[in-house]
Amino acid sequence: MIGAAHRHAMRLDNQYVLAAGIFGRDPAASAQFAESISVERIYDDYREMSKREAARLDGVDVVAVVTPNDSHYEIAKAFLEIGISVVCEKPLTNDSASAAELAAIAESNGVILAVPHIYSAYAMVRHAARMVRNGDLGRIRFVAAEHASGWAAADVDQWRMDPAKGGMATAVADVGTHAFHLLRYITGLEATRVSAELSTLVPGRRVFDNATMRLTLSNGAPATVWATMAATGHEHGLRIRVFGDDASLEWRHEDPQHLLVRDPDGGTTILAQGMSTLSDDAARVTRVGLGHPEGFLEAFANFYSDLADMLRGNPGRELSIPTGTDGLIGVQFVEAAVASHTDDAAWVTLP
Amino acid sequence: MIGAAHRHAMRLDNQYVLAAGIFGRDPAASAQFAESISVERIYDDYREMSKREAARLDGVDVVAVVTPNDSHYEIAKAFLEIGISVVCEKPLTNDSASAAELAAIAESNGVILAVPHIYSAYAMVRHAARMVRNGDLGRIRFVAAEHASGWAAADVDQWRMDPAKGGMATAVADVGTHAFHLLRYITGLEATRVSAELSTLVPGRRVFDNATMRLTLSNGAPATVWATMAATGHEHGLRIRVFGDDASLEWRHEDPQHLLVRDPDGGTTILAQGMSTLSDDAARVTRVGLGHPEGFLEAFANFYSDLADMLRGNPGRELSIPTGTDGLIGVQFVEAAVASHTDDAAWVTLP
Amino acid sequence: MIGAAHRHAMRLDNQYVLAAGIFGRDPAASAQFAESISVERIYDDYREMSKREAARLDGVDVVAVVTPNDSHYEIAKAFLEIGISVVCEKPLTNDSASAAELAAIAESNGVILAVPHIYSAYAMVRHAARMVRNGDLGRIRFVAAEHASGWAAADVDQWRMDPAKGGMATAVADVGTHAFHLLRYITGLEATRVSAELSTLVPGRRVFDNATMRLTLSNGAPATVWATMAATGHEHGLRIRVFGDDASLEWRHEDPQHLLVRDPDGGTTILAQGMSTLSDDAARVTRVGLGHPEGFLEAFANFYSDLADMLRGNPGRELSIPTGTDGLIGVQFVEAAVASHTDDAAWVTLP
Amino acid sequence: MIGAAHRHAMRLDNQYVLAAGIFGRDPAASAQFAESISVERIYDDYREMSKREAARLDGVDVVAVVTPNDSHYEIAKAFLEIGISVVCEKPLTNDSASAAELAAIAESNGVILAVPHIYSAYAMVRHAARMVRNGDLGRIRFVAAEHASGWAAADVDQWRMDPAKGGMATAVADVGTHAFHLLRYITGLEATRVSAELSTLVPGRRVFDNATMRLTLSNGAPATVWATMAATGHEHGLRIRVFGDDASLEWRHEDPQHLLVRDPDGGTTILAQGMSTLSDDAARVTRVGLGHPEGFLEAFANFYSDLADMLRGNPGRELSIPTGTDGLIGVQFVEAAVASHTDDAAWVTLP
């Protein structure tokens, strides 16, 4: 599914050609699939791919790594080291040392390492982040973020539920990092410490599929992050509420083209994507206009569109896409949550 | 805007190449634009384009006509007559005689004439239509459809507000036909007569920007259609409620990935795109899955995807896309509404 | 049910004592019921009741007539003529001559005839009416009102479905008058003509349970009123949308403590009962405060509270409760709708 | 405000007469107010009142204690000891020893001590509790409760913000106890331990106005409770989501007449107060019916109505109103939260 989403997103704005790739562990199946989607250059091995593509004048500019978490590091490293930019699914790696290493390689080689926390590419999330930076909310006093999905509310057989592939803290790594990134993106604040309780909601599951986390933010404000994939009956369940001294915001992934703004008197204003009064940050990622919903693939395409800008060497915007540093901070967040849980939910300082 | 939407939609599922075209009345600007989107074959005149493309072995399979209403007929006719399929924006033409002619030409030449009432391509609209056909609602007893947009709630300078280009009954032709098609698509019923009151809500406007219509449906049930682009503060405003003896349905374009089903006891069930229990009609036009909103461009891409199936000669599905006949029925609806209005909102029989 | 609602409403603000009454056609059952709710003076006949109560120093100030429509006239007349104020359920009577007579009797006898269109007593409806009068919406350009209830979506055996008791045009008389009053109350406009199509949605029903109506308002603006009790799956279904040149309003009975205000740019503001910035008209009928929902009984109590003010001789407020004139206008509306229907939905001028 | 709510609620169902009382610390003002609401017997001192009322044949059956928290204990004790039932606002007292004492006195004297956590008296909360007991959700796996009000999002001068009167942990005592009770009431589970982080969101405030709490429930499931009165822009903010293996529930105080039920496939069913298929627990506290919203005062009246049943000696229902034990558990919850906070949010076992 997520591979298809990457491909849809690349196509939407006509800025990418999918020219080369590996599409699974089985070479025959990979080749067959590649042909079905008109990809010309097919490889069996990512090392070989990195070398050959780097050697071509028309080699790929960027590679998307969409594999189970435990293989991210080796694959991303191979491309980054040889000078090819990488989009690497989150969590960037399973440990912060290797995540830091990837970020450092990208930095030193002058290539881009981008991490597709797609939700921060929605127009109304961009607008929310702009409102906070404009001071429309005043000082941030509390944040409640949650990614409480129902996709694995029943037993499922998938690599994410295998501790060896996705780690034990699946809820934090798989969905918690999205909620955490969204919080950082909108507020512009970092977390300084975390307390986490991990638990397993679905009987028999071998990983933690639920996590309740407290954060202290860099301005001293408290925050909570709830992450689970076992929220029976929920759709995607990604939602954030940001409370400031002067106003509060709410955004939900099930209704992404709207942003709720609440004023201290109790009134709520619903802002809609496409309104003429929104910020440029929202307007520049709006394709159709007011009343024409844009969804997940459009947000994904926004990510790729911003990436294309960066690949062309354009100076970054203030509100753009997450990179290696954000990926590293996400992995540190997962590690700290696990450390806290191991110590009975004690506070753990973040790097 | 609508031209860009066509292009986005063609790209999304990777089944089209935009190979040739005319992009405006000014040849130089058209050529420049074509180059910017990598279109190879650029023409100044649609007749010339139709002849040359028809003569090529690799000529275009289908042409999208996205011009003001008054030019639809001549352009569509040129391509259909020479054997090239056409996607023609609604209303198909400004009079039913020419619409019927286009439909007949397509029929006799064995090519496709498709009309992009995009809203019937949303997954949850497809599911609604399936529920009605399954008998889940029982006999249809009433339908309330509305396309009450706010896009022209203030004065705007646009060809749709010029009686010479879009006709007087803009509200019916521009948005009313969408609501009417949606009603026909979901219920599977035709309208046998219409009573219409047209009015102008925005002072100084030269066309009718508001229409309240009553229909009698082919099963005898009454229905209403409200069409306007002057509904101050509305976003898109397309919404339909279908009431049966056993249940009712509601769908709104502002929240397209959900469908509300109400039971006689007063309970409401919200169905969500991506649920495993939905019909194949919904599932086959769902790209990502539960909790991942798909919007207007995805619906547009569904239209083009179904069209691609038809262009490849696959037998049509029961729930597919609107064609020339639907376009003709839409134009007849506009004409009947105007006739009714002229006769003080008297009932007018539809053909 | 409606009798109990009257009693609850009288009690809530402690301004009434239910001192006398008739509680059904069967004297024994009436007496038993009266005793169960501690009513002291019990009568078998309304004429006797009117005479005796009028003769007492501590006789009742006001009587509530909560009987089937066909008995309203005689009962209300008896009390009004003898100088006792009356609350009479809508429709006031089954014909406008008798309604006009009741209004005239009340006027000449200096007593109050009040008609419990309760919905106009909700705080947020009062606020909506104030906003219109303040000019916040600009000129009213269109109104869409509906009372589309599901209470009789299936077959029911009740006096309202008996043409002899409730008249043929049940949908207009029973629920349409509520929507119509709400429209008049909020906009401050009258209707000058109506076109109505009446129909029967539930097979076998002997009355019209559905009505689609067009109005022309006194400022020339068009409006629609949809009235039915056969909207399968709806709860109460009373909803109004008022569109002005500068903003629009929406209120729904299922969420009565909120009022939606839409601005031309597409933004929506949700106002909540209890906000400090609301008008005095809303504030004076708010008992608890922000976030504490008040419902139907509180609205009913608002009606009785305003009535108590009037009974004490306080000068009326601009935004108060409907009286005999409103009841008469409601009956005229029913008659005009029936006349229009009989003439194939032709326009009928209102008095 | 809360005193007025008690009086409204007592009146609504006509089962109480407010016969005696003290209405403030100033005897003259108290007497004047008592007269304005027709209370006959006015006292200056609660001890005197308890003695005199106990001595009368027609003395009060029950007293409502609606004073700042620090006076609850002495006043409630005086009445309970002398054999008069008490409704005492929450938190029952400021420490669990005195709360336990009150509960014990009530028990040994055979009188009722009731605690008005009103929210558990809403029809749809009762229905939710019934669904859980019926096993409709399966095993409870997670609960997220919050009472995040905006009533004190700005600085306010009130006894609740005075540590000497309301205690330091205002957020837990004032609103957290409501969310906690709601969780216990609906799930039928107790909490075995709590971890709490208290904080002050409004600059300069002397009490903790925010609390994020984790619970472990008696079946081992994790839960969270968020309590604050500083959630900028929120109305009442009371909301609960209960997740079971087979379904989940959501209820919000801003829309109290509906209950959301989510099934594992992602569908949501909205149940509405008044539906014929609801449980008797919901039906017996429904006054008007489907589509007629009942609000806070009706819920409060439900509380008083159930209390009246108990005062008449009727055997308690399974789903009735909170009593002294519930009040005690609430106070223990506050104490444990404070203890946890003092120990850096460590887990604290509940009695």
Give a description of the structure.
The structure is a homotetramer of 351-residue chains. Chain A is of the alpha/beta class. Helix content of chain A is 37%, strand content 20%. The first copy, chain A, has eleven helices and 14 strands. Chain A has helices spanning 2-12, 27-36, 46-55, 72-82, 96-109, 123-134, 163-166, 170-187, 280-283, 296-311, 324-342, and strands at 20-21, 41-42, 62-65, 85-88, 113-114, 140-148, 191-199, 210-217, 222-228, 238-244, 248-252, 258-262, 268-272, 348-349. In chain A, the strands form three sheets. The first copy, chain A, has a nine-stranded mixed sheet. In chain A, strands 3-4-5 form a three-stranded parallel sheet. The first copy, chain A, has a two-stranded parallel ribbon with strand order 1-2. In chain A, helix 3 (46-55) runs parallel beside helix 4 (72-82). The longest helix of chain A has 19 residues, at 324-342. Chain A binds chain C through residues 265-272, 274-277, 290-291, and chain C through 265-272, 274-277, 290-291.
